[in-house]
Amino acid sequence: MYLYNAGTFLIDKSLMDWTPVVAGSAAVGLLVAFWFVYDIICRVFGFRKNGELIVAGLMIVVVAFSSWLANELFAGRAAFLLVGAMIATAMSANVFFWIIPGQRKVVAAMTSGETYDANALAIHGKRGKQRSVHNTYFTLPVIFAMLSNHYSFLYTHEHRWVLLFVMMLAGALIRQFFVQRHAFHLGRASNPWPFAAVGVVMILGVIVALKPAAPVASAAPATPVSFAQVQVLVDKHCLSCHNAQVQMKNVRLDSPEQLKQHAQNVYQQVAVTKQMPMGNATGMTEEERAMIGRWFVAGAKTD
Ligand code: HEC
User: Fold this and answer.
1) Within 10 A of 280 (CB to CB), how many other CB atoms are there?
2) How far apart are the C-alpha atoms of 296 and 292, rounded to whole Å?
3) Which residues contact 167 (CB under 8 A, 6 or more apart)?
4) N or C: which end of the chain has fewer CB within 10 A?
5) How does the average pLDDT of the chain come out, rounded?
6) How far is the CA of 278 from the centre of ligand 1 (A)?
7) Using the 8-state DSSP alphabet, how is residue 99 labeled?
8) SS (H, E, C) 199-256
């Protein structure tokens, strides 16, 4: 969807004014590039002394950089999904290029009936283990990226790349808690609660950072906006996607009661995050957005 409708979903002209084909190719290129970088890091550092720590540290830097870069190049919504897809590509490639082929080689050698060198085969087991451990840590960050698409307060934030990175790191730390918990119960590892605690504190930090700003009362005396004016705007800019037949995200805006019910969300979407109308399909102006804002701040009256 994001590649075929790149003009609507992938490109944010205020960041990069490029054609759909170029933007789409760049997005696909990043998926591949992430895999190569990750794979090289694993090959070079994976089996050294403290290799897993080095790989973890480097990958934290790589994910932070990816989050920054994607959010510099693409619309926030697409950027979040893209970083998730980069990690998910590495997860799949781990399975297809290392875990399954390694297993095949070992099984083939063991069932061939001929003598085989167990030491030479051990690398496949070690590498398969290494890559599946990495996939474990990738899971929660990828799920977060997948879900983030429904929450415009995340991907429209000024510092959205930091939010994405912090949430992903919190996910990996919380995963570490789950992993280590088993070893802890078997007496092989220390108590994992600090990982969970740090992860939760990071998420709390994001919640505080995202606290909605109080509606800004403008310095100039604001002309009151009547409900009739609001209805004209909604007819023009919203009803094509939020009516009795088409109800994007179950939001209908074709009656005063429904507008009243969704007033807070309409204000957020139109005046604060400016995500609606979707891709500004109807060319809503800043002045029109400000009118919706003033109507809401003045109490969202529907009479
Ligand atoms: C071109 C189609 C289109 C137009 C026009 C449009 N919307 Fe939407 N709207 C959507 C889609 C698609 C979603 C669901 C987005 C998602 O999944 O995050 C949505 C979601 C919403 C939501 C729910 C957001 C949430 O995350 O809770 C609100 C509120 C909303 N729109 C208000 C409006 C208002 C107000 C207008 C007019 C100013 C408008 N929309 C115009 C397509 C549209």
Assistant:
1) 14
2) 6
3) 141, 144, 148, 202, 203, 206
4) C
5) 93
6) 6
7) I
8) HHHHHHHHHHHCCCCCCCCCCCCCCCCCHHHHHHHHHHHCCCCECCCCEHHHCCCCCH
- Ligand 1 pocket mutation, candidates 155, 253, 269, 296, criterion most atoms within 8 A of CB: 269
Q: How far is the CA of 238 from the centre of ligand 1 (A)?
A: 8
How much distance in Å is there from the Cα of 197 to the middle of ligand 1?
36
Contacts of 129 (CB under 8 A, 6+ apart): none
Distances (CA, A) of 1 to 15, 48, 277: 20, 42, 18
Q: Is the peptide bond before 192 cis (omega within 30 degrees of 0)?
A: no
Q: In the block, which residue shows the tokens 């600090």?
A: 194
Long-range contacts of 265-270 (CB under 8 A, 24+ apart): 266/292, 266/296, 267/215, 267/292, 267/293, 267/296, 267/297, 267/300, 268/152, 268/153, 268/212, 269/152
Of these ranges, 140-144, 217-221, 243-247, the one predicted with the greatest mean pLDDT is 140-144
Determine which of 157-171, 191-205, 208-222 has the lowest per-residue pLDDT on average: 208-222
Hey, what are 166's tokens? 């912090």
Q: Residue ranges per domain, the chain?
A: 6-209, 227-297
- Nearest one of 271, 178, 146, 168 to 216, comparing CA atoms: 271
**Which residues have CB under 6 Å of ligand 1?**
150, 152, 237-238, 240-242, 248-249, 251, 253, 262, 265-266, 269-270, 276-278, 281-282, 284
* Stated pTM of the model: 0.81
Count other C-beta atoms under 10 Å from residue 253's C-beta.
22
pLDDT above 90: percentage of residues in the chain: 80
301 to 225, 226, 228, 237, 296: CA distances (angstroms):
10, 8, 10, 19, 8
Q: Which atom of ligand 1 is nearest to the CA of 238?
A: 37
pLDDT at 14 (0 to 100): 84
Mutate to test the pocket of ligand 1, among 77, 240, 242 (most ligand atoms within 8 A of CB): 242
